[in-house]
């Protein structure tokens, strides 16, 4: 058994194909006609650029835009004015195009490798990849063609360059093994995007695995088994089939409405932290955005973003979601989230201190800018705005007043916005939960934030190892709180959602169905499994489970009972 | 010649993507663009040189523009760095 780093999950069983680059040889010449060598180099560069532009477009279509940028980066590196002028200078001294390219690339490879920084070192591998590709064009040596492999092939290579990975036909490749690379290398990113199990950094893989050997690639644990016994093979065949089945069962839920077994429709939304992640929610068939955290806009910079910059970010998400619901949460800083230029003071009890809506109402210049950007953004889609850490009615009324004032100003200056913009409360403090009936009169919707609600209800800091055992959404106090909030929202006839991973928890879902939760907002990767879990229960079954659970007295017995009921069916 | 000192604040510094964006944007201006950082000067139009300079988050750099449209180039450079390259 060989050990490596599992970078792409799944199990692959197949025959090894060694992808060894043919050695590219050329005789360096020093008395060339510089005019014709320049022309050869220009032609090779053009072929390189054309090939890679086409490849980038193909990868962008089949794998993802972010992955295609790796290849666009290669084009840009090769067209770098400094790099080109160095190569041209060398050619003008009489060197052949091959030697000129080789020596300039070597200079950069040495330069990048010498820097004590992982990211910069990885760029050295990019240049090696580019050099090999252009040398093969110049010399006419054919490269390994990974697009024409037999079915059930496991590729074994010293390293997989982005250009090699990009032409892999994923129908025929069941696994990837390389001698170099890590979780963040290009090959790893592409393998994950193509869902091919991959184990990288397997020492001497090319010596230990011979062309044609039967191999098992375990991308979960990062192990490789060469010439497995029948027993080992059978174990892995069932592992693989189970994995594939689990994944395809989830895929069956793509395009289906989210509803309980007896046909009650609920909304299933995604949580995101940057505008780009909205694409991911769509790719997993999320029906909207239930929580867009806006903190990222304020991080890693020296001053707060202005109204226009914020507008662009919100607009991007709304346009991506094409009229589907988008809930944006206003700035939630303080507590454990610090942003240096906002001038937050060190506090004795940051979680009970100047954070979220409290900070925003104390810094009108920042809050007003965000609200103005949000109101303007509302004209680009179906926008709801959610206020974090509300504890009382006054706070929420102040926000509403601000929004009304902004709308009035926009009316007089003819700035478009959506008059149906909805304003809701994020229920994450016990006080908000207790007065849910009062808040429900003011708010257009509720969204239960389970992380903070659990922490504040149980007075537990999850990060403190001495007390973390007390932190559980299944404690009777938290469950009763959630039920109360949902019940009050129903009475007031406003929609109520839950954002946070608890909404994706198979054990909690039957209870949420019984309580009557309208919206489940989960991370993109949990969308399909949440849809499946919801579809398992009828309202009647869920009520039966909830009745039993809500009569239990301890967290322990609740979890035990839920496991018995939920996981056994 | 115009110049401005500025601190790199995006978390990953001038890694691949910001370097691509920066070199691309600077290539549109006719003037020379230099990035002075960690005691050496780097051609701001060359992605290769920018990557090799390995400018990380928190580094104070000086952007120097010299030639035609130097003011516009400097403004564009400063704005890109201040906005954290849209990270």
Structure characterization notes:
The complex is a heterodimer of chains A (569) and B (87). Chain A is of the alpha/beta class. Chain A folds into 3 domains: 25-139, PtsI, HPr-binding domain (Enzyme I, Chain A, domain 2, Orthogonal Bundle); 153-251, 3-Layer(bba) Sandwich (Glucose Oxidase, domain 1), CATH 3.50.30.10; 267-568, Phosphoenolpyruvate-binding domains (TIM Barrel). Helices cover 49% and strands 14% of the residues of chain A. In chain A, helix 11 (307-321) runs parallel beside helix 13 and helix 13 crosses helix 14 (393-412). The mean pLDDT of chain A is 91. Chain B has a single domain (2-86), classed as Histidine-containing Protein, Chain: A, CATH 3.30.1340.10. Chain B contains 3 helices and 4 strands, in the order βαββαβα. Chain B has helices at 16-26, 47-53, 70-82; strands at residues 2-7, 32-37, 40-43, 60-66. In chain B, strands 1-4-2-3 form a 4-stranded antiparallel β-sheet, covered by helices on one side. In chain B, a hairpin with a 2-residue loop joins strand 2 (32-37) and strand 3 (40-43). The radius of gyration of chain B is 11 Å and the shape is globular. The model of chain B has no long low-confidence stretch (mean pLDDT 89). The interface between A and B is medium-sized, with 24 and 27 residues.
């Amino acid at each position: 058994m060989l050990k490596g780093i599992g970078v792409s999950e799944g199990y692959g069983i197949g025959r090894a194909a060694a992808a060894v680059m043919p050695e590219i040889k050329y005789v360096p010449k020093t008395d060339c006609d510089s005019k014709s060598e320049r022309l050869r180099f220009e032609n090779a560069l053009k072929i390189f650029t054309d090939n890679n532009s086409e490849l980038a477009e193909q990868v962008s279509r089949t794998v993802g835009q972010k992955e295609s940028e790796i290849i666009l980066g290669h084009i840009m590196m090769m067209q770098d004015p400094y790099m080109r002028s160095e190569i041209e200078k060398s050619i003008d001294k009489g060197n052949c195009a091959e030697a000129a390219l080789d020596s300039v690339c070597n200079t950069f490879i040495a330069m990048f490798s010498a820097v004590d920084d992982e990211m910069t070192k990885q760029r050295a591998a990019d240049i090696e990849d580019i050099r090999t590709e252009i040398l093969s064009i110049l010399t006419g040596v054919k490269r390994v063609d990974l697009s024409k492999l037999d079915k059930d092939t496991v590729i074994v290579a010293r390293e997989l360059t982005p250009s090699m990975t990009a032409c892999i036909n994923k129908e025929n490749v069941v696994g990837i093994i390389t001698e170099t690379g890590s979780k963040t290398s290009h090959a790893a990113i592409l393998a994950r995007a193509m869902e091919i199990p991959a184990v990288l950094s397997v020492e001497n893989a090319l010596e230990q695995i011979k062309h044609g050997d039967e191999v098992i690639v375990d991308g979960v644990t990062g192990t490789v088994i060469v010439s497995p016994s029948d027993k080992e093979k059978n174990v892995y065949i069932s592992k693989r089939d189970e994995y594939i089945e689990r994944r395809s069962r989830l895929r069956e839920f793509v395009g289906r409405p989210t509803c309980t077994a007896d046909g009650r429709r609920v909304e299933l939304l995604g949580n995101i932290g940057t505008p780009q992640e909205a694409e991911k929610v769509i790719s997993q068939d999320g029906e909207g955005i239930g929580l867009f955290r806006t903190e990222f806009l304020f991080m890693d910079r020296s001053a707060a973003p202005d109204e226009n910059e914020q507008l662009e970010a919100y607009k991007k998400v709304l346009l991506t979601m094409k009229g589907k619901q988008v809930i944006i949460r206003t700035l939630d800083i303080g507590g454990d989230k610090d942003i240096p230029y906002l001038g937050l003071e060190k506090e004795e009890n940051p979680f009970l201190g100047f954070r979220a809506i409290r900070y925003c109402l104390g810094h009108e210049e920042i809050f007003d800018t965000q609200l103005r950007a949000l109101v303007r953004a509302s004209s680009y889609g179906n926008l709801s705005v959610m206020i974090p850490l509300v504890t009382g009615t006054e706070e929420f009324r102040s926000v509403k007043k601000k929004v009304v004032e902004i709308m009035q100003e926009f009316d007089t200056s003819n700035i478009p916005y959506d008059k149906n913009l909805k304003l809701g409360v994020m229920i994450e403090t016990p006080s908000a939960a207790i007065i849910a009936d009062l808040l429900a009169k003011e708010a257009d919707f509720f969204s239960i934030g389970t992380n903070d609600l659990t922490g504040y209800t149980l007075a537990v800091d999850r990060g403190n190892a001495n007390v973390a055992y007390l932190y559980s959404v299944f404690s009777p106090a938290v469950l009763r709180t959630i039920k109360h909030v949902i019940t009050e929202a129903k009475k007031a006839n406003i929609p109520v959602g839950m954002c946070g991973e608890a909404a994706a928890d198979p054990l909690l879902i039957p209870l949420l169905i019984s309580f009557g939760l309208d919206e489940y907002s989960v991370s993109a990767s949990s969308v399909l499994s949440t849809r499946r879990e919801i579809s398992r229960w009828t309202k009647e079954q869920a009520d039966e489970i909830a009745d039993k659970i809500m009569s239990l007295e301890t967290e322990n017995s609740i979890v035990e009972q839920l496991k018995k009921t939920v996981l056994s069916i | 010649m115009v110049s401005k000192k500025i601190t790199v604040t995006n978390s990953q510094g001038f890694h691949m993507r910001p370097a691509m964006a920066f070199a691309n944007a600077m290539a549109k201006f006719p003037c020379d663009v230099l990035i002075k950082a960690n005691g050496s000067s780097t051609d701001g139009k060359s992605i290769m040189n920018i990557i090799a300079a390995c400018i990380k988050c928190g580094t104070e750099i000086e952007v120097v523009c010299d030639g035609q449209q130097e003011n516009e180039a400097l403004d564009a450079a400063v704005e890109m760095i201040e906005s954290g390259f849209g990270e």
